[in-house]
Each structure stands twice: as C-alpha cells, then as structure tokens.
Amino acid sequence: MKSGWACLARNLINSIPFLSGFMLQIFSKMTPYTLGRAACVCRKWRYTIRNPAFWRNACLKAWQIAGVAENYKTLQSKYDGSWRRMWLCRPRVRTDGLYVSRNTYIRAGVAEWKMTKPVHIVCYYRYLRFYPSGRFLYKNSSQKVKDVAKGMNFRAPRHDLYAGSYTLSEDKVEAAFLYPGLRPTVWRIRLRLRGTVAGANNRMDLLALVTSGLNGSEVTDSDEDILNIVEGWAEDETHNPDVPAITHKRGLTPFVFVPFEEVESSVLNLPVERMDYYVPG
Question: Which stretches make up the F-box domain (predicted)?
C-alpha cells in the first residue's frame, strides 16, 4: 500500500510543472556541497542538478578574483565550455568549511612513584578558513574542530585569530599575515592543493612554513597588503636582523577539509586516547 502511495505521489510531482520550477529555485540557492548530496536522492534530481546555471554561479564565485572575463576564457580553452567540468577539474580553494591540520607530539611527564618515565601525547590544530575574496583566517589552538568552527569569522574576537591574504596559482596556494607586536613578524605558508576524489579539493600539503621580520616602513594597517610586501622574497629572507627567518619543521601534517555541516561529527574531534595519530590520506 505504501509503495502505491509513493508511486502516485512521484507521478503527481513529475506531472506538475510548477513543482519542477519550484525545485529549480531551491537548487539555485544551494551550495555545491548540498547539490552533490541532493543528486544522490533520485535520477530526476541528478539530471536536474546538471543544469549549467548552477555550476556557472559556483565557478564565478569560487574564482571571483580572476574576474568574469578570465573565467570565461579559461572555460573555453581548457574545459570545452562545460562549467561542471571546470568545477570538477580545476583546482580551487574551498570556502564552505575549514582546512584542519591535526598535529601530535610526545612530551615527557613528571616522574611519580608508580611511573619513572611517563610520557604524554599532546595534540594541537592549525586551522585555515579561506574566503572567495582572497582573504583568509588562521588559528593555532588545542581546541577541537567543533569548538573552533563557530569562531572562525571576521566578527569574532581577534586576540588569537589572524587575518591575511592568499593567492592560488594552478594547485599552489601562497598565504601570509602579519603578527602584531613590537617586532613585526610575517607568517608565510606555501601549500599544494589536491583531492581524494575528482573535484574534492579536500587536502592541502604543507610545503613550507616560514616566519621572518619586517622593517618599520613595511608595516601597514591593512592585512590585504602583506602578500604584495613579501612578493619575491626568498624562503630565508628577513628585513629585520632582530627577527631571523625561521623555516619551521614541526607541525606540518597535511590539512584536511571539514565542511561546516560535518564539524560536529568529524573524526578530528576524537581525543588522543581514542586516536593518537590521524592519517590524512
């Protein structure tokens, strides 16, 4: 009986043009992530979601820094005019969640009468949130993903949250921000973007992480100018002899992307007692 009602309802929905137009309006408001999930519901939705208009809007937003004209040029020259193919094949920085690097290390504990050489596993995270405008936020914290996600925005207090700018060239990401203080220090990072499946762009390999000094004349109030200041710098370059360039060798675990819809359920929230090390894949 239930299957009969389901068949009747499905035929009724398919026979009403108004509902089809209504679904198109709903799909047009959805993010690419939720569009992908909706495509798994049924065959009709899967074909509907292939509408080029959905993917054109997504592409123009994802690569808005390049400009509309340049995006159309890339579309025709590399992706045969297919917005969906461009979305799946062209490297892009995801903005619908956080990139998270979970790092662990062993620290010696205090000797007690039961344990002579105790050790502890310490876990901390690097968080990156990118925006289509070319800006990003960075946070280094021991807090789990579900506790940090709600505060990773420009409206949040900035005492331990840093803002900077980034560029994307092919699959390489370069980003930088300025540490405030008496001796201004610039934080620079180089990343390689990749995905576990086509179009995922859910991994970032950390190629280099460098801190170095700026002289007083290079310091600006705008976090958007910092990339222009350090453009062309060598990895070991510093402009303040009191702040030497340091290439960091620890805490370089690849970044894993966590959509906002999954911050509560992500395995990266597990304590070290249940997951001492995470393999990003």
Answer: 23-60
CA distance 280 to 266: 13
Among 173, 208, 29, 196, residue whose Cα is nearest residue 93: 173
Burial of 81: CB neighbours in 10 Å, binned 0-12, 13-18, 19+: exposed
- Torsion angle of alpha carbons 201, 204, 205, 211, nearest 10°? 150
User: DSSP 3-state helix, strand, coil percentages of the chain (rounded to 5)?
Assistant: 35, 25, 40
Residue 93, helix vs strand vs coil: coil
Q: Both tokens of residue 263?
A: 């911050």
Encode pLDDT of 197-224 as tens digits: 988 999 999 999 999 988 877 776 666 6
- Is residue 277, in this structure, part of any structural domain at all? no
- Identify whether 36 is part of a domain: yes
Pair (7, 121) in one structural domain? no
**What CATH number is given to the structural domain containing 53?**
1.20.1280
Q: Which domain holds residue 40?
A: 2-89
Is the per-residue pLDDT at 248 higher than 70? Answer: yes
Write out the two tokens for 123: 């876990």
